[in-house]
Design goal:
Length: 572
């Protein structure tokens, strides 16, 4: 491509909502324009990179017998009502009516549509397994669209769905997709980790996320320094066991006046005790049943774990009225000893293993000290309900867990029969008996992957593309446009590289050398072939490697060889 003819502009100023490097750099390099909050125009440079990511995905998936389809963005409400998600999905689902008052939505994901497509043709076990994917625009009315393509409302996703005859073969498909994702992300050139993940409102029983490691990542990942355990903090666990303290250390329970001291921080400062001497007591409503949840004062409760443990649809903190009915006091002074109304007590492991803890007294402005589990209260459930923190121990090998920030670029789920059951997607097995198809689903955020690659690979001058997803692999920079010789050399090297199949751009603009260098660094072409009058006299050009800043003198006749070798070494 001739840059002089490219639909392209660079910007010096970036809008202030662009807070993270990838967002700023995509604006500055003229890759995207915002049309509306979380909705973007993809300009040619962005789309070139996106197409390369898509082609890597297509290549790895077709190698594994996956088939591409293209399904509609507009989806009828009936399907979502059948699966039960019309009521459940919430405000992220953008709903509208057509002229006949029929309900529709813009697809945030395609389980319903694909299950419907499959059930129309699935008859026999002989047809399975099927593994179907598409690369398509999704719409999710995100509460806080931000970070550019990282969290848009309209975005490009690869979504895939598998249909198997039973759990066992579905598990095999899952493993195959897990392995395909490893191959895909490796080829995009990003540094990533696969981590255990919660299934969220897609549903299902097992899941992994693919996380690109980056400071600005919205996700927190816990990873063991010793073994390969890695999990999103939403699901991560640590070595946990119910420890007991010898009873001889137990002291007598005593009330203590704590006027106005409601939070753990306040009481802990007031009593000059560390937060880990406290038991935090929280009244929750789990699927309509009030429950008292206990966790040590220095730890945070992980509601997702409560949800999973109870297989609940909703887990919410109780309001003031319910708290008063149960405890006779207000939040902050609630505790497990002497509740007004007996409710189920659920405790995190952290509550055990220490003696003489402090809790609310179920009386306004009072706490009690020297509370000991088992002597003073009995929890009916004791399990792992807290967020793991850095320094906690690995649940597999007891190694130390460290935290990292990550950007979720992909996720694989094993769905089981969640959708095939609600939508009646069945087949006849070997014995002629009707069975439900066992499903999996597999997503990749294509735009997010591009953004994450920039987030991970840039410097103060601009983007440093991994070669396989760079919009162009190489740029030719004739420096003196008033020199016929330089212009001619530029043209001929450009023509040769193009002819031999390199993905090349030519900066044929009548601009100064400094200007061209700045742009080339900003856009991040992995290689710059620099043509200057002086070096031409020696029959050489300079090739700069964007990543390392190294420069090589290369004979004109060897430029293609050099470029080709660099590209193939980088792709390895
Ligand atoms: P998140 O937790 O970040 O909201 P998700 O878990 O809801 O994402 P999935 O349903 O797993 O997302 O979607 C598959 C992939 O689509 C994600 O791994 C992510 O890369 C991408 N994706 C999801 N939401 C967005 C978005 N708002 N903008 C861009 N990409 C997105
Ligand atoms: Mg996800």
């Amino acid at each position: 491509m001739r840059i002089g003819q490219m639909f392209y502009h660079t910007l010096k100023e970036v809008p202030k909502e662009a807070q993270i490097p990838s967002h700023q750099l995509m604006f500055r390099a003229g890759m995207i324009q915002q049309l509306s909050s979380g909705v973007y125009n993809y300009l040619p440079l962005a789309l070139k990179s996106i197409r390369k990511i898509e082609n890597i995905i297509r290549d790895e998936l077709s190698k594994r017998e996956c088939q591409e389809v293209l399904l509609p963005v507009v989806q009828p409400a009936e399907l979502w009502k059948e699966s039960g998600r019309w009521d459940f999905y919430g405000a992220e689902l953008l709903r509208f009516k057509d002229r006949k008052e029929n309900d529709f939505c813009l697809g945030p994901t395609h389980e319903e549509v694909v299950t419907d497509m499959v059930r129309k043709v699935l008859k026999s076990y002989r047809q399975l397994p099927w593994n179907i994917f598409q690369i398509q625009t999704k719409f999710r009315d995100e509460v806080r669209p931000r970070f550019g393509l990282m969290r848009g409302r309209e975005f490009i996703m690869k979504d895939g769905y598998s249909f198997d005859i039973d759990e066992e073969s579905s598990k095999e498909t899952y493993n195959k997709m897990y392995e395909a994702y490893q191959a895909i992300f490796k080829r995009t050139g990003v540094q990533f980790r696969a981590v255990e993940a919660v299934t969220g409102n897609i549903g299902g029983s097992m899941s992994h996320e693919f996380q690109v490691l980056a400071k600005s990542g919205e996700d927190l990942i816990m990873s063991c320094v010793n073994c390969d355990y890695a999990a999103n903090v939403e699901i991560a666990s640590s070595v946990y066991e119910k420890a007991t303290v010898e009873k001889k250390f137990y002291l007598d329970v005593t009330d203590i006046h704590t006027p106005g001291q409601k939070t753990i921080d306040e009481v802990s400062a007031f009593l000059e005790k560390d937060s880990h001497s406290f038991i935090k007591s929280l009244v929750y409503i789990i699927d309509e049943e009030p429950v008292l949840v206990l966790i040590r004062g220095d730890k945070d409760l992980n509601e997702a774990k409560l949800m999973t443990y109870f297989g609940a649809n909703s887990v919410e903190l109780a309001d003031d009225i319910v708290i008063e009915q149960i405890s006779g006091t207000v939040a902050g002074f609630v505790g497990p000893v002497g509740l007004k109304k007996n409710i189920k007590i659920v405790a995190d492991y952290s509550v055990y293993g220490q003696a003489n803890m402090i809790t609310g007294a179920n009386r306004n402005e009072y706490h009690i000290v020297n509370v000991n589990p088992e002597r003073d209260f009995e929890a009916s459930v004791v399990d792992d309900f807290g967020f793991v923190a850095s320094g906690d121990r690995c649940p597999r090998c007891r190694g130390v867990l460290e935290d990292y920030r990550g950007i979720e670029v992909g996720q694989v789920f094993s769905l089981g029969i969640k959708y095939s059951k609600s939508m009646n997607c069945t087949f006849l097995d070997k014995d002629g008996k009707e069975q439900l198809a066992v499903m999996g689903c597999y997503g990749i955020g294509v735009g997010r992957t591009m953004a994450a690659a920039i987030e991970q690979n840039h410097d103060e001058n601009g983007i440093i593309w991994p070669i396989s997803i760079a919009p162009y692999e190489v740029v030719v920079l004739p420096l003196q446009m008033n020199s016929e010789e330089v212009v001619a050399a530029g043209e001929s090297i450009y023509a040769e590289l193009k002819e031999l199949g390199a993905d090349v751009a030519l900066d044929d603009r009548e601009e100064r050398a400094g200007f061209k260098f700045k742009d080339a660094d900003l856009i991040g072409y992995p290689l710059q072939v620099i043509i200057g009058r002086k070096s031409l006299d020696k029959g050489v050009v300079e090739v700069k490697i964007r990543k390392s800043g190294e420069k090589f003198e290369v004979l004109i006749q060897n430029v293609f060889q050099f470029v080709q070798k660099y590209i193939s070494d980088e792709k390895e």
